[in-house]
Amino acid sequence: MTEDFATDPTKPAQRLRAGSLTIPLIPWLIAGALVIVMPLFFQANSAITIMNQMAITIIFALAYNMLLGQGGMLSFGHAVYMGVGGFATVHIMNMSDFFAMLPLPVMPIFGGLVGMVLAMIVGSFSTRSAGTVFAMISLGVGELIAACSVIIVVFFGGEEGISGDRTYGLPFFGIEFLQQIEVYYLIAFWLMVSAALMYLFSRTPVGRMANAVRDNPERAEFLGYSARWVRFYSFVASGFFAGIAGALFAINYEILTEENLNLTTSGLILLVTFLGGAGFFFGPVLGAIVFTLVQTVLSLETELWGFYAGILFVATVMYFPGGLAGLIMMHVPALRLGKAGRLIVPYLKTLIPGLFTVLGASALIEMIFHYRHAAVGDDEMTLFWTSFDSHSALPWIVAIAVTVVGFWLTKKTAPDMAAAWHDANSPDGGAA
Amino acid sequence: MSVPALQLDGLRKSFGKTEIIRGVDLSIGKGERHAIIGPNGAGKSTLFNLITGRFPKSSGSIRLHGHDLEGMAPFEINRRGLSRSFQITNIFPRMTVFENVRCSLLWSQGYKYSFWNMVSRQRALTEGAEAILEQINLTARRDLPAGVLSYAEQRALEIGITIAGGADVIMLDEPTAGMSHSETDYIVDLIRKVTENKTLIMVEHDMGVVFGLADRISVLVYGEIIATDTPELVRGNARVQEAYLGAALEAEH
């Protein structure tokens, strides 16, 4: 057995393996290219507004996941770092002499620094432990700063918030950021820079130790690292990127209010991150994209969008704790075995009836809502591009029938899907 | 005489009114392999936790290479060259085996809390971790999450993490607990190899392991050390036999 101990660091096998840890470039190049060409496909101003909001949410969610996913810290008050960064940015925009000397694209650095300084102050006492204590402190600090918005009116502007004008800055190569598309590319630039920096952070010694402290803080202490300081550095880095997101919010909307600080916003970013999947770096990106679409597109269709978003979150927590990213990554073993193709037909057989079940059930919910809340005499409602009388029997029968049949078919085909899943994940020829 | 690697003077620890460690004096020289044995509940693990800063002591002093460890946190004690393993496996379950070992190398290779180095670009780090993996025979498990390893493999990883940082005082808390005979033999070989020229302090129940490895043995009974001596003399000590060893040795044969 002793010959196993002999180690030769010059072995080529060992050097090769060292090389296998290099950073994968291709997903980043694809993401960068997508970000550049998206406005060519979606040219409407409303689409660009949605994409701007999406990009800001992505940065915020990635910053939040530095705590939740990578550092194992559950924060209920992370909106304040983004919010305060944003408020500070608006104040700088309002210092007209100073702002006139600065091009707009550098503003996020200020937002980031302010978010970072605030995180240093709060983190100095909140990162002593993770778990419940950290969560409660984050909740308290979040509430405290949100309450400050009506107390420190000079900075937070009270209930109406504060507003600025992004176009007063020094023109940047002739661009004055009057148009949405110009703002889009400014935000897109910062999105790519922030995402890349956050990714690289996770590959540094302190970023690796953040994972170690998340898994087992005590063991990390017996390896020479103070769990508290590891948490502190993650927290400060997260505050910096949240501040960048805040500055971009200030640039995009030119107004910040109490809403940017409060617990609702803090809670939403937790849900967005969880929906996307806290366990993977790209999870929060998916979460932010899906949630922004639900928030903007679905909210145009129905007043009940929040209800559906809530169901989506509960379903994620209960059935897919890995989030959307987890759902995708779950298919990697089947892909490696080259058997993922066998899943397509069973998936369609189960998921299409499933989709109809969801649509039928949501139709019922919408009809109940209309029946109960529409003005007296207003019996006509429009759903799925069809207009009908919500007080007549036929639409109810159709909706109930679709839901029941869809559910029955889903249940009936689910075992086949499960069997196909098992098959696709078992190596051929081996004992399954 | 040179400064001992570890010196305990009048060490005491109470939990509430119960005194668990009742005045321990012990001096362990550099390069010595020292085993602490004793019946269940004698306070062996508590003694380990006091030395490594996991629990605060009630009174007495602990010196590592002559430096008083008074008031130091575990991470500060570790930085002074003392590393320990745990009786209940204590690893990073969601990280890969390789990452477990690499993380345990970071501080000793001087990376501290740096956020300007990419760990994957540091050849010394990667090669150091690979070398440890070969030593503990887990190269084939390199990219698996540590949580899915078998019990014996996790115990080997535990030792790997403990020795990786190059500490010169290694404390192992029941390294062979729950292992089969062949696994035990393997771990004993491993311990002997990786602690060469280092100071080893171990708590162990397996008398075969203790008498095979230790230069000296301390017997801890009810929070007091009743004997510290070479294995042969401890074996012959009447008090030890009365308190503990007799029963254990009879069980062995």
From TrEMBL, chain A:
Q: Which residues form the signal peptide?
A: none
State the organism named in the record.
Answer: Aliishimia ponticola
What lineage does the source organism belong to?
Bacteria, Pseudomonadati, Pseudomonadota, Alphaproteobacteria, Rhodobacterales
Instruction: Output the CDD domains linked to this UniProt entry.
Output: TM_PBP1_LivM_like
The UniProt keyword set, sorted, is: Cell membrane, Membrane, Transmembrane, Transmembrane helix
- Which protein, by its recorded name, is this? Branched-chain amino acid ABC transporter permease
Q: Which ranges of the sequence are coiled-coil?
A: none
Principal location class:
membrane
> So where does this one cross the membrane?
25-42, 49-67, 73-92, 104-127, 133-156, 183-201, 232-256, 268-293, 305-330, 351-373, 393-410
Show the Pfam families listed in the entry. BPD_transp_2
Identify the domain of life.
Answer: Bacteria
**Is Membrane there in the keyword field?**
yes
Tell whether Iron-sulfur is among the UniProt keywords: no
InterPro entries per record: ABC_transp_permease, LivM-like
Subcellular location(s): the record lists: Cell membrane
GO MF terms, alphabetically ordered: branched-chain amino acid transmembrane transporter activity
GO terms for CC?
plasma membrane
- Please give, as recorded in its UniProt entry, the membrane topology of this protein: Multi-pass membrane protein
TrEMBL record, chain B:
List, alphabetically, the InterPro entries matched: AAA+_ATPase, ABC_AA/LPS_Transport, ABC_transporter-like_ATP-bd, BCA_ABC_TP_C, P-loop_NTPase
Pfam families annotated for this entry?
Answer: ABC_tran (PF00005), BCA_ABC_TP_C (PF12399)
Q: Is Nucleotide-binding given among the entry's keywords?
A: yes
Record's signal peptide: none
Q: Which keywords does this chain's UniProt record carry?
A: ATP-binding, Nucleotide-binding, Transport
CDD domains on file? ABC_Mj1267_LivG_branched (cd03219)
Query: Does Electron transport appear among the keywords?
Result: no
Q: Which residues form the ABC transporter domain?
A: 6-247
This protein's GO cellular component annotations are: plasma membrane
> One MF term in GO for this entry?
ATP hydrolysis activity
PANTHER family from the UniProt entry: ABC TRANSPORTER ATP-BINDING PROTEIN (PTHR45772:SF3), CONSERVED COMPONENT OF ABC TRANSPORTER FOR NATURAL AMINO ACIDS-RELATED (PTHR45772)
Q: What is this protein called?
A: ABC transporter ATP-binding protein
Name the species this protein comes from: Aliishimia ponticola
Taxonomy of origin reads:
Bacteria, Pseudomonadati, Pseudomonadota, Alphaproteobacteria, Rhodobacterales
